[in-house]
Each structure stands twice: as C-alpha cells, then as structure tokens.
C-alpha cells in the first residue's frame, strides 16, 4: 500500500545493436521512456549547468529580435547578457501571445464594423419582447428580389457586393443567405480591447529598440560560446545519427537487476540513479486487492505525485462513507453489492471491488438506519421497533449527521495535509481552527452527551460546567489556529507577500471552512431524495394488483437505484477531490507505463 520507488535509468549502446536491445527491453516491459536531449545532458554532466546550445539559441533569437526593430532610447537597466537573453525571450513569447490576441480582437472588430455600435443587451430586450433581431448579408440582387413591404428592417451598411440588413421580426421563412451570428460585444469595446493590445505590442517594440546598444555585448558572448557550441553539436550528432544511441527512462527499483539482465547480451552501458527531487517521475501504485479499485478512481480524477504520500486508503474510506450516505438504504446497498459482484465476474476488477466494498458499507448503514427499499423499520413495518439510528426515520437527524460528517471530513483533510507537507504550513492553523469550531459546537449543542461520558448521571450544573470547559478549550484552539495562520499563511500571493497572504488566509480560512462543511449537506439531500422516490414507488405499487405491484416495484426501484448510483459517483468524488482533496492532495498524471510491444500490451490488458 504505497508508491513504488523508481530509479532513473539511461541506456547507451551501439547503433548497430539498437533494434535488438530495444526489443529486449520491450519484451521485459520495464523501462518507462522519457524525453532526453543528449547535448544538454552532456553539457550539464561536464559542469556547464544549463545547456550551452539552448543558451546560444536564446541569445541568437534575442539578437535577431532586437536588430529587427527601430532603435529607441537606451534603457537604464544594465542586465547581464545571459539574463538579458532570458528577458528578451520572455518578452518575445508575450509578443507572440499578444499577436494571437490582437488577431482575434481584429477579427471581432471586422465582424462588428459593418453593423455599427450594437449593444447585445438591447438585442436581448428586443428578443424578450417578441421582436428578435436577425442579421443577414445579402447580395444587392437578392435584396431587391425580396418583398420588404411588411418586414421591419434597417440597412446597416451596403456596398456594390453586399447589403447588411437587420430584420426586426421573424422575416421571410427562407432567406437567400444564412443569418450572421455577431460576437456579444459592443464595437467600441472590441476596438478598445484591440487598441489596448496594440499599445502593449508597441511597448514591447520600444523595449526591444531600447536594447539596441547591447548588440555588441551579445555578439561578444556568442563568440565566447561558439567553440563550446560546435563541440556539443558534434557530440549531439554522434549520439543522434552516428554510431551511438541513448535511451532514458524510469524503472521500479526492484526491477533494476531485470533490466541489467535484459541488456547483458549487448554492448550497452546502463546508468542508474535516483530521480531529482521535484522532477516528473512516473508513479506505480502497489495496493492490496480491496484498495486497488479505489486506486483506479484516484487515477481517473486527480492522480498522485511521486513526491507525495499515497492517499488511496483515505479515498477508499471517504468513498465508502459518502457513498453509503448517498443511499442510506440497505436494499440499495445490497443492489450495489450485487452490481459489484457482477462486474467482478465480468472481469472489471477495479470497479467491481469499489462497488462491493461501498455496497457492503452501504448495507451496514442501511441496516443501522432501518431502511429497506424505502420501507423504514418502526415506521412502515414493525411499527414500534425503533432502528439503531434515526438516519432514515428523521430527516433532521440525517441533516445534522451530514454536517457532523462534513466537520470530521475537513478536520481529517487538514490532518492529512500536515501528514503530507509538514506542520509548518497553513494546514496547521486550519486544523486548530476546525477543532476549535467543533469544540464550540459541542459545548453549545452536545454538552450533555460529553458530560454523560464522564459522569454517570450529571446534574444540570455539572453539564453547564463541562460545557464551559469545552467552550474554553475550543476558544483556545481557535486563537492558536489564527496565530498559526499569522506565522504560516497560505502563500497564494507568493512567499514575499506575507501580509497579503495573511489577510487572504484569515478570510478564506474562516469562510472556506464553513462553506466546505455546508457542502456536505448534499449527502443529506441526495439520501433524502432517494428515500422519497423509493417511498413514492412503494405507494404507487401498493395501489395496484399484485402483478402490477411486482412490476412497478422492480422497475421503479431499479430506476431509483440507477439515479442514486449516478449521484453517488458524481457527488462522492466531488467531495473527495474538491472539498477534501484541494486541502491535502497535490496530484499528478504521470503513470508508470513501460515500453513494451503492442502485442504484449494487448495481452496484458486482456
């Protein structure tokens, strides 16, 4: 139940043996291939740090850009040449993006210009009052051929090729031209947006022109790098097209000896080392069979970063709890269990296991609530025999229980975040504030229950005293949490904007906690709606003869089960990967997929 340790492996061999070596690696199915650029890696290995070829390309691009614009007054800042290359390339990337935005804005202006200044809100008002506006472009001949006597229209513009007509009614049933869909924007706004982008582009041109005096510095730096670049180019050609080849990827640590055996018959070298911290490393999960299915859900929704701890067991626990509260019915829990067994029999082990475990847990929750296919023990059958809990019998109990589950879930989320990232994070303050809020709620609404755990038959004064102690503890925890936020706020504005981060954390931490807890009310709503629909099915079925009762009962409950199953999957995963996961999951989508032949991959998938 963990993330498999991976190693970075580089295989270098003779080009003559490349096909046979790669075939052997494919047959073993061990190596997860990753892109590599040999010249830059060789440059780093020799101690150059950043790839020289990339540095040369960047400076050449910067020089060409500066030389292509009109010279402007020199800029006061004197950046080092290498940093200047980075800065110019960043501005060029911004220019490319702005050019695309300018083209789009110009296209919008061109589309709106023939029609003039039109407010989309006015068009909406006209449509709401039964006079929708239709915009068409017609040839002068087509325009003259139509009878416009009873058609409210206006000519926005015309030339020798086209007539731009706005029709203020349904118009003719058939037009010789397709109606024009105008952008929902005023012409003046579109022009303003285009001109703003144009101003930014001119600013970039002035910036580049202000660096014209640095061209000699760039030329000197390129001369310094020329020899080094020529050597690396030659090495790169030798690796890519010459007598050598190189393949880089990742292998599970336990498979290192298998890879060594696979390439042993060939003249190839193998370098194995640990991946660099924070780098993109493919993930391979190692789970027991019951958890493996929930690993599939994690893979589909968020993934797992190699550098975080495996949270799949937490997802399993939350999925079963949330899913059971979406059903709150032993009958539907049994159907979910049966569906899981069917999927398992059909070979879908992942979702088969998910449904089996969730169905079994839902069956338990349904039994505790005393509800079976919409029939509640003590209310509809066996009247007078109260079930162990009131989840099915009392909507208010289910409502309160959903909020309790939300509070426990968010507290668990903050604890998980500390487990993942350490206590010197915003999660520490959030956990303390959440615990303080829970303690305050207990002191207000459940002080007698706490007193009952300590004293056999507590007097009212003792209950009040214990409630006061719990409230004081909650206040202390809340204050401690706020102090922790002041020291370790959420760095949403960057590590240097401490004050802004503190204000944001105080606001989002308090409001977000309440919002996330309240979001768990969807469990109450989904469970209640399912119970109501099941009760309606039972009422309808009871009104029919026995054959009709059986048919309506089977079809109706199957329909309700499908709807409940859909809600279960959507809303359960939303609570897990949004409300819960956003607090403590980093996630990632790089999964261990070793290089293997297609026939072997198909055989494994089957």
Structural commentary:
With 606 residues, the chain is α+β, with helices and mostly antiparallel strands. The protein has three domains: 2-74 and 211-273, no CATH class; 119-181, no CATH class; 285-425 and 488-584, no CATH class. Helix content is 63%, strand content 8%. It has helices at 18-28, 38-45, 52-67, 81-112, 120-128, 140-145, 187-209, 215-240, 256-263, 289-301, 312-327, 330-345, 349-369, 395-421, 426-445, 447-454, 460-487, 498-519, 521-542, 546-584, 598-605; strands spanning 2-3, 6-14, 32-33, 134-138, 153-158, 163-167, 244-252, 268-273, 285-286, 371-372, 375-376. The strands form four sheets. Strands 3-7-2-8 form a four-stranded antiparallel sheet. It has a three-stranded antiparallel sheet with strand order 4-6-5. A hairpin with a 4-residue loop joins strand 5 and strand 6. Helix 10 (289-301) packs across helix 13 (349-369), helix 11 (312-327) crosses helix 13 (349-369) and helix 14 runs antiparallel to helix 15 (426-445). It is extended, with a radius of gyration of 34 Å.
């Amino acid at each position: 139940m963990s993330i498999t340790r991976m190693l970075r492996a580089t295989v270098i061999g003779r080009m003559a043996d490349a096909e046979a070596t790669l075939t052997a690696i494919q047959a073993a199915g061990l190596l997860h291939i990753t892109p590599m650029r040999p010249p830059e890696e060789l440059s780093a290995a020799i101690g150059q740090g950043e790839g020289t070829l990339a540095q040369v390309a960047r400076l050449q691009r910067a020089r060409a850009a500066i030389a292509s614009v009109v010279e402007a007054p020199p800029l006061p800042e004197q950046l080092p040449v290498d940093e200047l290359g980075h800065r110019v390339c960043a501005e060029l990337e911004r220019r490319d993006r702005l050019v695309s935005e300018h083209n789009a804005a110009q296209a919008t202006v061109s589309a709106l210009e023939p029609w003039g200044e039109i407010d989309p809100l006015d068009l909406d008002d006209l449509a709401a009052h039964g006079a929708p506006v239709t915009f068409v472009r017609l040839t002068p001949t087509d325009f003259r051929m139509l009878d416009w006597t009873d058609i409210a229209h206006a000519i926005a513009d015309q030339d020798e090729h086209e007539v731009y007509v706005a029709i203020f009614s349904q118009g003719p049933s058939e037009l010789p031209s397709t109606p024009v869909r105008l952008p929902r924007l005023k012409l003046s706004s579109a022009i303003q947006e285009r001109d703003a982008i144009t101003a930014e582009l001119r600013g970039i041109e002035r910036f580049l022109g202000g660096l014209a005096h640095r061209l000699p510095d760039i030329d000197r730096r390129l001369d310094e790098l020329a020899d080094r670049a020529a050597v690396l180019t030659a090495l790169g050609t030798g690796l890519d097209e010459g007598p050598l080849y190189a393949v880089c990827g990742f292998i599970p640590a336990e498979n290192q000896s298998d890879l060594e055996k696979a390439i042993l018959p060939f003249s190839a070298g193998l370098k194995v080392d640990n991946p660099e911290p924070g780098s993109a490393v493919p993930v391979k999960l190692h789970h027991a069979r019951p958890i493996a299915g929930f690993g599939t859900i994690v893979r589909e929704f968020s993934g797992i970063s190699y550098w975080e701890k495996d949270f799949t067991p937490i997802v399993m626990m939350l999925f079963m709890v949330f899913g059971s509260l979406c059903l709150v019915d032993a009958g539907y829990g049994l159907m979910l269990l049966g569906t899981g067994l069917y999927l398992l029999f059909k070979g879908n082990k992942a979702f088969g296991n998910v449904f089996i475990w969730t169905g079994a847990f839902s069956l338990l929750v349904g039994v505790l609530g005393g509800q079976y296919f919409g029939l509640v023990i003590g209310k509809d059958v066996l009247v007078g025999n109260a079930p162990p809990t009131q989840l099915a019998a009392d909507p208010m109990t289910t409502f309160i229980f959903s909020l309790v589950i939300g509070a426990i879930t968010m507290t668990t989320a903050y604890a998980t975040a500390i487990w993942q990232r350490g206590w010197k994070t915003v999660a520490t303050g959030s956990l303390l504030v959440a615990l303080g809020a829970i303690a305050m709620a207990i002191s207000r609404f459940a002080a007698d229950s706490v007193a009952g755990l300590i004293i056999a038959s507590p007097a009212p004064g003792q209950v009040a005293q214990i409630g006061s102690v719990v409230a004081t503890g909650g206040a202390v925890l809340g204050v401690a949490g706020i102090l922790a936020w002041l020291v370790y706020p959420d760095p949403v504005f960057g590590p240097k904007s401490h004050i802004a981060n503190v204000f944001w954390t105080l606001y989002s931490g308090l409001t977000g906690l309440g919002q996330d807890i309240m979001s768990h009310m969807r469990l109450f709503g989904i469970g209640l709606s399912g119970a109501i629909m099941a009760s309606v099915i039972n009422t309808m079925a009871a009104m029919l003869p026995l054959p009709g009762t059986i048919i309506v009962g089977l079809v109706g409950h199957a329909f309700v089960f499908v709807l409940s199953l859909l809600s279960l999957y959507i809303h359960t995963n939303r609570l897990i990967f949004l409300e819960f996961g956003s607090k403590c999951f980093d996630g990632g989508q790089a999964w261990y997929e070793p290089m293997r032949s297609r026939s072997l991959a198909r055989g494994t998938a089957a």
